[in-house]
Amino acid sequence: NNVTDYGSNFMFVQHVLSMDTTFEGNELQWRAVEQPALHHVAYSLIIACEFLTGLLSGAGACVMLSRRRAPISSFHAGIMLASWGLLLGLLLWFGGFMVVGAEWFLMWQSDSWNGQDAAFRFLVSIVTTLIFIHLPEPVHLQPGNPAMKDL
To answer: What is the pLDDT at residue 70?
Structure first.
C-alpha cells in the first residue's frame, strides 16, 4: 500500500514528524521535523524495512514449508531466515513507531494521526510468531529418541 498509494500513508509520516496535531502549546515542539525531504527519507526507510521484513519472513516460511519433512537442522535454516525478518519488523514497529513516533514525536497526543494501535497489533503478531517458531521440538519427535520407534 505504501508504494501503490504513496500519498495516503506519506501524510501520516508527515504529520507525525511535523508534530502538527499534538496538544496545543506543547513544550516539546522543538523536536518537530518540518523539512519535506526528511519526511520522504523517513517514509522510504519505513517502506524499505517493511519490504525486507516481508521478504525475509516470507522466504523463511517457504524454506520451512519446503523442508517440513527434512532433518531438523535443514528446517532450522528457514526458522533463522524468518527470525531475521521478524526481528527487523520488531525494530520497525516497536523502535520506529512506538518509541520514535509515539514517544519522541508524541504521536500518542494526536487524535487523527496516532498509529499506536496498529503498531501494537503488528508487534503482537510478530512476537507471537517468533515465540511459536522458536518453541523447542517436542521430545517424542527428536531424532534418536527411543520413543520414535513406537510411532
So the answer is: 87
